[in-house]
Amino acid sequence: MEWEPSDLPENNVTDVHPLRELGLLLVGIGGATIVLTLVLAFFIDGVVRFLPAEWEARAFSGLWEELDPVSDDRQGASQELLDRLSLHWQENPYQLRLFVIDAPEPNAFALPGGAIGVTRGLLDDVESENELAFVLAHELGHFERRHHLRGLSRSLALGLVFGAATGGSSGTLLTEWVSNVTQLGFAREHELEADRFGLGLVVAEYGHTGGAADFFEKLPETGAGAIHRMAAWLATHPVSPERIAALKRVARQEGWRRHGELTPLYLNAEPR
Amino acid sequence: MEDPLVQIGAQIIPFFLLMLMGFIVGTTIESNHYREIRKREAQTRHLPTISFRRPPPSWQITSTALVHGNTVVSIDYFKRFLAGLRAITGGRITSYESLLDRARREALLRMKASAIENGFDAIVNVRLETARLANSSRNGQGTAGVEIFAFGTAVKLAS
Ligand SMILES: [Zn+2]
Q1: Which one of B88, B94, B95 has the shortest CB-CB distance to A165?
Q2: A87 shares contact with chain B (CB less than 8 Å)
Q3: Any idea what the CATH number is for the domain that residue B83 is in?
Q4: pLDDT-based confidence at A251, cuts 50/70/90?
Q5: How far, in Å, is the centroid of ligand 1 from the Cα of A195?
Q6: pLDDT band at B60 (very low <50, low <70, confident <90, very high)
Q7: pTM of this prediction?
C-alpha cells in the first residue's frame, strides 16, 4: 500500500471576521429587542386599560410601602382636599390615598392603584390651598388617563425583554435608564393632558384658576440654588413656558375666571 | 442618589476593556498558534497517522505502544461574548470553531511528536475524545475550557 502524505484540509473554521460577526449579532439582536419591546409594550398597554381599579390597588399596594410614608400633621387636611377634588371626577374608580414622603424636594407622583405621594418639600412650598389642589388634581389627571400604567407597561416590557436577554441582574440598571429616556418623550404630552384635567377640577372646586399655576410661575424667580431643589420635580414634571402657556390657553378657551380669592392652607389642621 | 449614567458606565467600561483585551490578546495568540501548528504539521506529515482499526495486512509490525496527546484550551472574553450572542440567535458559533480546531490539531501533533520521539513508524486506530472541563455559567464566573485527547496505537515496522 502506497503512503501519500498530505496536509490536513483547513475546512473546519468558517471564514468570517470576528468583528463582522460581532457587528451582525449586535445589530440583529438589538433590532429584535427593540421590536419585541415595542410590540410587548403595545399589548400590555392595551390590556392594562381594562384592569379594574380594585385589582390595580391590590396588585400594587406593596409598592406604596416602599415609599416609606411618614406621619405628618398636614396629611389629614391634604387627604381631605384630595377627596374633595375627586368628587368633581364622577367616574373615579379609585379609592384614593395620600401619602407624605420625607423628602426636601418639592414633588408629587401618582402610583398605580390610586395612591398619590407628596413630599414634605412640596407641602412646605405651597402657599395656598388652590396651589396644592392643582398639584393633586394634576396627579388625578394622570389617573384619569391611566398614564401611570402606560409608563409601567413600557418599563415592564423593557424589563421582560432585557431580563430574558441578559439573564437578569445586569439588565435592571440599563432597563431603568432606557425606560427613563423613552419616558421623557411622551411625558410632556402626558403632563399637558394631566394639567388640563387638573385645571378643570380646580375650577369646579373654586370657581376660578387663581393660584393654580403659582407653583410653576414661582420657578424662574427662585434662583439658581432653588433650581437644584426643583430638579426632582422637573425630572418627572418638566415645566416649560409652553406648558404654562398651554394652561392659560385652556383657561381662556373654557372661559374660566383667571383670578379669584385664594383659600388658605390647612383650615382644619394645626399649624406646625 | 448616584447618576444612573455613572453607574452604567461603571458596568460598561470594564466590559469594553475586557472585550478589547480579549480581542487583541486572543487574536494574537490564535494567529501565532496557527502559524506554529502549520509549521509542526509540515514537520510531522511524513508519519502515517490513520484511523483504521487494524494496520494494513502487508505491514510487518515489530512492536506497538499506546501514544497520546492532550490539549486543554480556554477561550478569550471576546469570543465567549460572541458565543453568548450566538446562544440567543442560534447558528454557527464561529468563535468556537477555531478554538476546537486548534485544540484538535494540537492534540494530534503532540501525539505524533511522542510517536516520532520514540522511533515509531506509524500510528493506527487514531481516536479523539472531547471533554468539557468547566462550565461557563451565565454570569461569567467559572472557566470555559475543553480538553481534547488524541490517542492511537503506534507501530514499528520491520524494514
Ligand atoms: Zn405629572
Answers
A1: B88
A2: no
A3: 3.30.110.70
A4: confident
A5: 8
A6: very high
A7: 0.59
- Contact residues on chain B for A170, CB-CB shorter than 8 A: 11
Quote the number of domains for chain B: 1
pLDDT for A31 beyond 70: yes
Q: Is the ipTM of this complex over 0.95?
A: no
- Structural domain including B52 reads 4-157
Pairing between β-strand A115-119 and β-strand A97-101 as defined by DSSP bridges: parallel
Of A243, A133, A263, A146, the residue nearest A196 (C-alpha): A243
Instruction: Count other Cβ atoms within 10 Å, centred on residue B81.
Output: 21
Do the chains contact at A25 and B89, CB–CB below 8 Å? Answer: yes
Is the confidence at residue A212, as pLDDT, over 50? yes
Number of A to B CB contacts under 8 A, please give it.
Answer: 63
Candidate from A8, A19, A170 with C-beta closest to B105: A8
Phi, psi of A118 (to 5 degrees): -125, 145
pLDDT tens column, B102-126: 999 999 999 999 999 999 999 999 9
Q: Is A14 on the interface with B (CB under 8 A)?
A: yes
pLDDT, mean over chain A: 78
Query: Residue A136 corresponds to which cell in the numbers above?
Result: 393633586
